[in-house]
DNA mismatch repair protein MutT (Streptomyces shenzhenensis), 156 residues
Amino acid sequence: MARTEHYDDPTAPKPNSMVVAASAVVTDDHGHILLQRRRDNDLWALPGGGMDLTDSLPGTAVREVKEETGFDVEITGLVGTYTDPKHIIAYTDGEVRRQFNVCFTARITSGQLAISDESTELPFVPPEEIDQLPMHHTQRLRLQHFLEHREKPYLG
């Protein structure tokens, strides 16, 4: 199923759902960031996804990283909350969502890198190369906040 991300677009369809989601900035020993190239829109993004009714937000991030990358991770911190109503995601099945995302930091505890059916590539990317990747504004904002080493999480 394909998706189209809109930001501050007056022609975007109106949302028909609200999804609580979590994502994680996972780094290796060199400070490179694990990114996935999404199969549904061909853009680069952090691993993450929607919360199940039986999940916590940190648990969602841990589960989604495992499902999308093969790695088991431990949550180590909070980058921020991202609730901008200008960000609309439209899916080809008719769902048009507003997303509430909480972005965490995480470290790998075990597992092996494995591409899921949701992505086509899973590299660890040096921070200085991130600007060169096609990525939605909202993903870039989370990475910018992480790379700023803020004392307090972003609340937006």
Q: What stands out?
A: The helical segments are 57-69, 137-147. The chain has one domain: 3-155.
